[in-house]
């Protein structure tokens, strides 16, 4: 890992690539390195299009840590053939995560199968899938990270809607195999989230911490309405303090899906992200004897 | 109350007027009476435009019970003048409910004030407002019914997002003064909702039970995307059984906001609502010695 001229206050910042999806992978690597941002969160589709090995080399050469791969999951199908295909696809995602050198595969579990109204049965199938996949992932040094999605996605994307539910699932497995994602966008409204962050931290379950702000009105389809840090309703500092207090010292990933950001110059967007991060999310204390940066997969 | 030729299986059905907003109040009264639907849920704006006393007479003459008035609330402002105006407006809503002969004023509590990120403070102001309003309402025979809204409305409409939160607020006051609304659209995703319905029933807190289905994709603004019963992801029968088991025997109100229903013939929509209700929501057992219809405010 290089990083000679990296600002200390960005030492835990990671840019999820969908935030600046107008960038190719080489642009992403170059842009993050230039801005002193030490981590990137990657998505499977662009990584596969570029080549998984090549993407891994690209990030390693730029001195960047891959803090997570998005995403596995979508394993709620009832039909055996569909279910088997989903598990195969998740094994491929685990392999890709291992190749990229990230220990974290984010899981968006999946919604109700078409025509189904059976939330408990759907959630049970997620637990079964985790049971099948977690040994495979562990052998490759990858932890499965269950991401609770906002309840507005419960029908069509993810029946895991709260951090409590994600932990109920994760805690069936060893902490080093299955963790959870704390994403401010999905969890900010929940009055039990402080207690659940503490629970997650006590169990060593926080696999990722992601930031985006909540802005209204929501767009049709509600997928691409996330706000730049500071533009919305979420007390990001409050979340950071809770996650800190829970003992989490890993990467802090900014993941914003918003077409207005995609229309702008990528470097300008990244500078804005870094500036908002520095002003809204408490920065690191002055250099301490204990290293607290993101794990360096390149060793 | 007339109702000689009312079908027994619709004896608890109430039509919230926004479901068929193309109807004027006289059309609503006539349409419900003709269809054998014994209850209506009304909204303040059309009632005030028609005249509160006149609307009360209209419904009484048609033999209809007014099962709820929507809505009070929106009392999360910080500014004293704004807050006082909101409380005054809520007193007016309580007066209107009393005039209409309904014992239930539905409260949509309000979102974060502009620029605020303080969820706990905002929720505390709701408790304060309930403290100020509930004696006034009780003197007029009106119960305040806190409606938890789906978490996607937490920023701009209602920081009370779960039935547990609504009960935490309601339980500060006597049950006959402050209750809660169980609305399937807002609560269906929540894996704790069965326990919270039981808690609400045990405390005599269920002031209203409302039905709508969850359909995707959500429209921009996410206000007008509710589905006709049976068109979406919600197990309505499951909800009805839980509410029954909790001891609730009041009206069952259908409240769907969907422009596609507003473009159709009102009588046709109401017939469809009644048909879906009869097939999807368990109907009443054969006539029992204990009356279980909606309360008749006309005495």
TrEMBL record, chains A, B:
SUPFAM superfamilies: Xylose isomerase-like. Residues 32-272 form the Xylose isomerase-like TIM barrel domain. The keyword Isomerase applies. Keywords: Isomerase. One of its GO terms (molecular function) is isomerase activity. Gene3D superfamilies: Divalent-metal-dependent TIM barrel enzymes (3.20.20.150). Pfam families: AP_endonuc_2. This is Sugar phosphate isomerase/epimerase.
